[in-house]
Amino acid sequence: MRSTIEINSSLLRKALKATGLGSKRAVVEEGLRLLVKVKGQGGIRRLRGRVAFEGYDSDAKTGKQLQ
Fold first, then answer.
1. pLDDT of residue 67
2. Torsion, CA 35, CA 1, CA 13, CA 37, rounded to 10
């Protein structure tokens, strides 16, 4: 989809430098991906402190069952 938007030039410069991405488009797309990812974590964050962890039933390194 094609869009025309005004972006704060200082913010865009900082984003280009911070990400090392080569184009404005790449920076905007990466920013949008990150925004969607972070906002998508909201449901998980709401569960914090409400889910009881009962431990692992196998060792993560070896895959062996724990006693």
1. 64
2. 10
Alpha carbon distance 63, 43 (integer Å): 30
Per-residue pLDDT tens digits for 47-62: 888 888 777 777 677 7
DSSP assignments along 1-67, one per residue:
--------HHHHHHHHHHH--SSHHHHHHHHHHHHHHHHHTHHHHHTTTTS-----SB-TTT-PBP-
Q: Find where tokens 């984003």 sit.
A: 15
- Residue 25: the pLDDT is 96
**The two structure tokens encoding residue 42:** 């909201």
Structure tokens given for 4:
């025309």
| Domain residue ranges of the chain, discontinuous segments joined by + | 1-67
